Amino acid sequence: xxxxxxxxxxxxxxxxxxxxxxxxxxxxxxxxxxxxxxxxxxxxxxxxxxxxxxxxxxxxxxxxxxxxxxxxxxxxxxxxxxxxxxxxxxxxxxxxxxxxxxxxxxxxxxxxxxxxxxxxxxxxxxxxxxxxxxxxxxxxxxxxxxxxxxxxxxxxxxxxxxxxxxxxxxxxxxxxxxxxxxxxxxxxxxxxxxxxxxxxxxxxxxxxxxxxxxxxxxxxxxxxxxxxxxxxxxxxxxxxxxxxxxxxxxxxxxxxxxxxxxxxxxxxxxxxxxxxxxxxxxxxxxxxxxxxxxxxxxxxxxxxxxxxxxxxxxxxxxxxxxxxxxxxxxxxxxxxxxxxxxxxxxxx
Length: 348
Known about the structure:
CATH superfamily of the largest domain: NAD(P)-binding Rossmann-like Domain
Strand order of the largest sheet: 4-3-2-1-5-6-7
Mean pLDDT: 94
Order of helices and strands: EHEEHEHEHEHEHEHHHHEHEEEEH
Largest sheet: 7 strands, mixed
CATH architecture of the largest domain: 3-Layer(aba) Sandwich
Number of strands: 13
Distance between the termini: 19 Å
CATH class of the largest domain: Alpha Beta
């Protein structure tokens, strides 16, 4: 008979209550009993933050009530426990908690509020799980140095292709390999738009559908101009390829210049157009590009359509491998955050 696991309660702060962290709350509604039974873990949400501020409840915010409150248009400043005039970093400087789940909007100018919240947590030895790419793009080495110094866990598999474990595969499973080329479709929004345009749907209509599903933001600039894909490529390059690169090291072209005529001509040639992230090994390191690229329609990446994302990796030891995922809602990305959190705290 299996001995029941002793239950450890993880006190967590949710920074950002958009689509991803709201879905994290929904997972807790569905899976708390399973998490306790299989992993000996339960999660108590002791702080929540949105653009209106931060609220704290040491006894824990009920996941279902909090999710419904946000989905009805509620703001954190209206919750009991609201801390006036405080940033997430201010609250994390003294908050008693074990884990920060950071999914605030991507801000590539300052990284805020996610960057300062992540720094503060790691300095205090609080584990951080990121869905927000900006802190890693702007301060990858610094954050890892802080985590190493304090012993805090830092995980971010949700930042690249949602639930597809690209980062986990690349770092954990390709031991001793030299990666010769890595190519991927890292942005489901642009892939959906290009697929729909190829069938005759307008760019505007396809984008509106992606926004309705919560995959594309109200301001889709990061997606359609290629910067979301570039962010992910920077994280892959630093975490998997052993590079030390920044966003400025990536040559980026988005999909806004792709026309119906371009797609029709590609189809006539037996090809399709995808927004492709590429890291190509050269004698000087890796050449990093993001651009719309014609691919054979029968190729692996050429067949990644609609809401699919995929990656192909060529290495000296493991040969050619491919992975893909179909993801048209934020739930799998929230599940990737849960995956990271459980792996940081589960018992061996």
